[in-house]
Specification:
By secondary structure, the chain is of the alpha/beta class. The protein contains eleven helices and nine strands. The chain has a nine-stranded mixed beta sheet, with helices on both faces. The chain is globular. The two termini are about 30 Å apart. The N terminus is likely disordered.
């Protein structure tokens, strides 16, 4: 085992172990690992402003029970991973969003999704892994596409969940869903921040499948674990300054499954369909009733879908 890894029991689960991995590029990632080391490894990459706990424990355990070793981690700038301090000029996100929609190049972010994909590649190396399966959700799916295209020798099979390739002229997110992610809470005390998180869950999530008590408990747990709104903005700028992944998608030769929720209004289903169309041989599955989240109701089906894909 790499000397950079120091394992301890996760305070959130009894089947995952925590570690910090020094990538050697100035970034340390906070990681949780579960399952038999001899089983095939699945790396889970989460989305914009989302700590690794947005991969539900039940989802991770379901994959482990189906014969996989599971690794989830906090991306840079979120959760317990390294934070990026940026002293650069303030960027106009609305201008960058307009330019990206037209396929125009943006610059000026502290880092972009290519840098975040390099983090994943280095994580694979530092943990001494061979080929891995990768499952990326939302922004994590964008990062996963880059990893598969730029580091094909490190990826066995690819799965993508409610994501996009940011190609030009795709329909934009519905404003209510987008602004719920990037707007500020009404107050900066604990209750204000938790209420804001609950509002986001309800706006972007699967209609009718959100347990309000569980959502409040999750929001409080995430707040107490880490609250770093600057990282959310900087990850959003990373997306805006990455540009279209369409040409990269055309390079991907991995067996790929793209899954999207029919009720997703943050990244409408046409985004997932565009990714599946661009990747040769990719399969697309649309799930009725699902939004931009992973509620318990859908976990048995989702985990089975991904596990079967990785086995096929």
């Amino acid at each position: 085992m790499n000397s950079a890894l120091q394992f301890s029991i996760s305070p959130y689960t009894s089947f995952m172990h925590e570690t910090r991995v020094d990538l050697g590029n100035g970034i340390e990632l906070h990681v949780e690992v579960g399952g038999d080391p001899e089983h095939p490894t699945v790396i889970l990459i989460m989305g914009l402003g989302a700590q690794m706990l947005y991969w539900p424990d039940f989802f991770c355990k379901s994959l482990i029970d189906q014969g996989y070793r599971v690794i989830r981690f906090d991306n840079r700038d979120i959760g317990l991973s390294s934070k990026i301090r940026n002293a650069g000029p303030r960027l106009n996100t609305f201008k960058l969003m307009g330019r990206m929609a037209l396929g125009l190049e943006n610059q000026g972010a502290p880092y972009d999704l290519y840098d975040m994909a390099d983090d994943v590649s280095l994580l694979i190396d530092r943990m001494g892994l061979d080929k891995v399966h990768i499952l990326g959700a939302s922004m994590g799916g964008m990062i996963a596409q880059i990893v598969a295209a730029r580091y094909p020798e490190k990826v066995h099979k690819l799965s993508l969940l409610f994501t996009s390739n940011i190609q030009r002229l795709l329909p934009p997110p519905f404003p209510k869903q987008l602004f719920s992610l990037i707007e500020k809470p009404e107050s900066n005390d604990e209750d204000g921040i938790i209420n804001h998180s609950l509002k986001v869950f309800n706006i972007i999530g699967s209609p009718g499948y959100i347990n309000q008590l569980e959502a409040i408990q999750t929001a409080r747990k995430l707040y107490k674990r880490s609250y770093y709104p600057a990282g959310v903005l900087q990850q959003f700028l990373a997306i805006l300054c990455t540009g279209s992944l369409l040409q990269l998608d055309k390079q991907i030769q991995h067996n790929t499954l793209v899954v999207h929720g029919a009720c997703d209004r943050l990244l409408p289903p046409s985004h997932g369909k565009a990714v599946a169309k661009a990747i040769s041989g990719a399969k697309f599955e649309l799930i009725d009733g699902m939004g931009h989240d992973i509620p318990p109701h859908f976990i048995p089906y989702l985990s089975g879908l991904f596990a079967d894909h990785f086995k096929s």
